[in-house]
Amino acid sequence: MQLVIRTLSLLKAIATADQPLSATTLSKSLEIPIPTVHRLMTVMVDEGFAVKDTASRRYGRGPELGALLRREKTSQLAELSLPVLESLHRRFNESVFVSQLSGDAVRCLHGIESSHPLRLNVTPDSTLPWHASASSRVILAQLDDAARDEIIATHQLTRYTDNTPTTLKELRAKLDNARVDGFDICDDEFESQAWAVAAPIFTMDGVVGSITLSAPGGRLSASSDRKRAIEAIREAAQQISESFR
């Protein structure tokens, strides 16, 4: 039993650390003998739950541990966002959904569709284009410059409508505005006659996803209605973000 407790303690320490940790640091903070730390961490490295930097000899999160943490974050995001989505849906009766940053893509996690016959569909696990959807752009805008530039460099700026941003200048301008404003609007850019507003969701580690309200542009055409939707989405994103803290 002691071995199991020590293994879990080491995993927790690696998972929650801001930077790689040395065996000495792990030994002192967890009160585990250094030989035991080395033995258990060697197993974790072999199994992919930790990685060891050969130069500093420090241990960090491995791909298997990273995958576990992402699944846990997905579960948390789904659970924490559901009541917020339900509240938005009752208020506007338009399609609302939460998207999650997943590797180098943004995927729809879950949502609730409008009850109107004419509505925008919500498809769980569908990917959203980085350049043509508010859900993706508002996440991209919050990434650090290096990560953002890497994604932009490898993403094809496909034209979906006449209003789709298809140049780097247009896309960067939208990202800069989204970063400053804290929300992004997609107006007839991904789907014809569709309007959407999205705001980013944060955890302590940074941006993790976004929440979006989308509707046929003709039904949500009044500036006052769009202003209410923008304010509601920003408040919803803030509410979910605060739930992670």
Mean pLDDT: 88
CATH architecture of the largest domain: 2-Layer Sandwich
Identify low-pLDDT runs. Answer: none
End-to-end distance:
32 Å
SS strand fraction: 15-25%
CATH class of the largest domain: Alpha Beta
* CATH H-level superfamily of the largest domain: GAF domain
Q: What is the overall shape?
A: elongated
Oligomer: single chain
Helix % is 40-55%
- What is the count of DSSP helices, taking H or I runs of 4+ residues? 8
How many individual β-strands? 7
Q: Spell out the helices and strands N to C.
A: HHHEEHEEHHHEEEH
CATH topology of the largest domain: Beta-Lactamase
Overall description:
This protein has 245 residues and is an alpha+beta fold. It folds into 2 domains: 2-61, Winged helix-like DNA-binding domain superfamily/Winged helix DNA-binding domain (Arc Repressor Mutant, subunit A); 70-243, GAF domain (Beta-Lactamase, 2-Layer Sandwich), CATH 3.30.450. Helices cover 48% and strands 19% of the residues. It is built from 8 helices and 7 strands; from the N terminus they run αααββαββαααβββα. The protein has helices at residues 2-16, 23-30, 34-46, 63-92, 134-140, 145-154, 168-181, 223-243; strands spanning 50-52, 59-61, 95-102, 105-112, 184-187, 194-203, 206-216. The protein has a 5-stranded antiparallel β-sheet with strand order 4-3-7-6-5, sandwiched between helices. A two-stranded antiparallel sheet has the order 1-2. Strand 1 and strand 2 form a beta hairpin. Helix 4 runs antiparallel to helix 8 (223-243). The longest helix has 30 residues, at 63-92. It is elongated and about 70 Å long. The protein starts with a helix and ends with a helix. The model has no long low-confidence stretch (mean pLDDT 88).
